[in-house]
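Researcher: Re-running this chain for the archive, since the previous output was lost when a drive failed. Same request as before.
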Amino acid sequence: MRPPLENILNRKRIIILVVLAVVIGAGIFLFSGKKSSKPLAGDQAKPSLTVTTGSPDVRNWSHRISATGNVQAWQEAIIGSEVAGLRLAELYVNVGDAVKKGQLLAKFTDEMTELDLEQQRAAVDEARARFVQAEAKAESSQKLKDAGMTSTLDNIQNQSAAQIARAQLKAAEARVKAQALRLAYTRVRAPDDGIISSRTATVGSVLQTGNEMFRYLRRNKLEWRAEVPDGPLQKIRVGQKVTLHTAQGEAVAGRVTRISPVVDAQSRNGSVYIELSGTKNLKAGMFAQGELELGRTDAITVAQNAVVVRDGYSYVFKVGADERVAQVKVQVGRRMEGRIEVVEGIAADAQIVTAGAGFLNDGDLVRIANAGSVKRINPSKTN
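Model: Regenerated structure tokens:
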């Protein structure tokens, strides 16, 4: 049975509509593709950012090495007991006290020492009397010997007795000096000017020779022991100036006095000793950082804003003749006065972006607001 004519016409209409829809869609797609492929006027010439440009400044900067280390005593001396078996009777100073050379610091009991000294002095008097007697007898014996009235043996014995008496007198006098010195040692005195940094002695204790009683900072002088890597260490010389920065923000001037001849095998650092001046607020044991001045050298410098750090590397953007920027990797050095030294990567006459560099990428087209030129800063006006 044949389908009705009406159904056949409906199917034909549907097929025709589908074909027309496909044709119209393809035409629209092709038209829009051709239209979008045409560049818009001015798109390629549109700058991404307006920037300020300039050239580096050549500045005469001081060359410095940064270091860290501890403040320590220039000389910390130990004052100990010089007598044994005596009781400590008095203490006259404590930690933090300033002392002068020869000042009395402590005193041991001295009654027995004084009595021993008197006894030794009496022994000297006795020895002197025996010597006078023996010497007179020896002189008389020599005269008799010369006159032939005594034997040679007797004369020799008398002369020997005089020499023995003389030696005994000298020994007795030496014992008096030793006992007088022992008496002097019962009074402990400061060997030099300084400040007491430690006191271990206590009243009533009985000390032995060499026992520590005090520690003191000799002449109240401090020094900074800076730890410097072995590379920069080779550039340091005795006499170079140093600036120390304390935790309180104070700057203390110093001078290199000694350089260690060895480098630590683990840290690869060497020790540099700096004599400090104006140490009123410094204490031994403080940690500090500072800078050692090695002299002055010319430096190619740029503004801090000109340097961009990306992925751990430093870059500047160099502007070409077509006003497109090139990202250039640089090696930076010293930092002063809001500027950074460029050690390697650009020439002194390079045209670089000085403001707006942080928003740029390699190859960007920029609009230049102004342009600078190379200029040399007067060294007398810079650090």
